[in-house]
Design brief:
Rossmann fold; binds pyridoxal-5'-phosphate; six-stranded mixed sheet; 21 helices; 438 residues; five-stranded parallel sheet
């Protein structure tokens, strides 16, 4: 499989294709676009996976065509997926309804779905690096789940260094602990500034020739193919399980921000997996739902909401959705989108805890609310699944007052909270970053 940029020939950019390893190293295409497959493999049929029940086994079969031309990855794919997918993606029925469930993606080391992508990316990097190469320096600016997932995934991986930049005093104490508890090859920098300052600093580093000369820099953000492709696997596994049980497809409601998770769902459907409807549940950042309604693509600055990991006003992965569904009609046929404001998120957390005894994180609650707003007839028809992108215990200050009790912290998170914390404070300046990395 080869990859080219979403801004390829049709939009005046380069139509050169590159292999999986090169796309993973680059992250973003040189013309600013995102890498997508040049062609799609022949569609899989559910029976192709008959013998494959485990997540790693499904991953190995599903991802093989995508890495086939990168010998270092192809030869190690079995080991890579066993390392990356060493925790489950559980499909759990809700409220005794056989047609309604939740796909729990929060059983990894940092209790959010980003663990799947980050761990696959890290396992691939380790195989791509030649022994004589300089260590790769992964730079990541974070305000939430990404930094922790990337740090956890690369921790103690030979040949890799991670530098996490977060805005000093602007992340919650528990979030800060997840970013600063690693040590070894993971460095945490508290930047005296905002998240935008952190991001600007990372961008500055990437375009600075002397930083590039001094360090082998790479990014690990969600536009990287190495994070996106592995996310197709839990959609495959859950839809196949439903197909086996009922002979029918599974429809998804996906809490969405930068659209990486939902692109993976659409790619899985394109690959032939038994996936029915797909609904994007956004928060009060309405760029995508507005586009579905009006046909006008109008990015705006993001606004802060309870579901903060979805606070995105200009979602990068929209380019990949548009490559798949090039006009408004086809995208509307393929997907629907809605916006759930903070009041509705909060009310849904309270209501579903009462009705089902389930506590949702604010992101998952947006999906639960989107499902609850469907007309009764549509809710009854397909098999539905809301996607739980994070464990509620990551957001105790939001969720606990709404359900009136304390949440149990999963063992994975408790293990992080028990570690000691270490970070260095820097000014938002390139010289300070260079000194801290040196
Ligand atoms: C990142 C994140 C999202 C948004 O996912 P996208 O792929 O950016 O659409 C939703 N929920 C949680 C908990 C996240 O960390």
């Amino acid at each position: 499989m080869r990859y080219f940029s979403t801004r390829g020939s049709a939009r005046g950019g380069s139509r050169d294709s590159i292999g999986f390893g090169a796309a993973l190293r680059r992250g973003l295409a040189p013309d600013g676009g995102l890498y997508i497959p040049t062609e799609w493999p022949a569609a899989f049929r559910p029976q192709d996976f008959a013998a494959e029940a485990s997540l790693p086994a499904i991953a190995e079969r599903l991802l093989a065509p995508f890495v086939a031309d990168e010998p270092l990855i192809a030869a190690a794919l079995g080991d890579i997926v066993r390392e990356a997918f060493d925790f489950p993606a559980l499909l759990v029925p809700i409220g005794g309804n056989p047609r309604f469930g939740v796909l729990e993606l929060f059983h990894g080391p940092t209790a959010a779905f980003k663990d799947f992508g980050a761990r696959f990316l890290a396992a691939c990097w380790q195989r791509l690096l030649r022994p004589d190469e300089r260590p790769v320096n992964i730079l990541v600016a974070t305000s939430g789940d990404t930094g922790g997932a990337v740090a956890a995934a690369f921790h103690r991986r030979p040949g890799t260094q991670v530098t996490v930049l977060f805005p000093k005093g602007l992340v919650s104490p528990l979030q800060q602990q997840q970013l600063t508890c690693w040590g070894d090859n993971v460095r945490a920098l508290a930047v005296r500034g905002t998240f935008d300052d952190c991001q600007a600093l990372v961008k500055q580093a990437f375009v600075d020739p002397s930083m590039q000369a001094q360090f082998e820099l790479s990014s690990a953000n969600s536009i990287n193919l190495g994070r996106l492709l592995p996310q197709t696997v839990y959609y495959a596994a859950s839809s196949l399980a439903t197909w086996r049980r009922t002979g029918e497809p599974l429809s998804f409601v996906v809490p969405s921000g930068n659209l990486g998770n939902v692109v993976a769902c659409c790619w899985a459907r394109k690959l032939g997996l038994p996936i029915g409807e797909v609904i994007l549940a956004h928060n009060a950042n309405t760029t995508v739902p507005d586009y579905f309604a009006s046909g006008v693509w109008q990015p705006r600055p993001s606004i802060a909401t309870l579901a903060s990991a979805m606070d995105v006003g200009n979602p990068s992965n929209m380019e990949r959705l548009q490559a798949l569904y090039p006009d408004l009609d086809s995208i509307r046929r393929a997907l629907s989108a809605c916006s759930i404001d903070d009041a509705a998120i909060a009310a849904r957390i309270t209501a579903d805890f009462r009705e089902y005894g389930r506590a949702w994180c604010p992101h998952t609650a947006a999906a639960a609310e989107a499902w609850a707003r469907l007309p009764e007839s549509r809710r009854r028809e397909p098999h539905w699944c809301i996607v739980a992108t994070a464990h509620p215990a990551k957001f105790p200050e939001i969720v606990e007052p709404l359900i009136g009790r304390q949440l149990e912290v999963p063992a994975t998170l408790r293990a992080l909270y028990d570690r000691s914390s270490e970070f260095v404070e820097i000014d938002p300046a390139l010289a300070a970053l260079r000194a801290a990395m040196g």
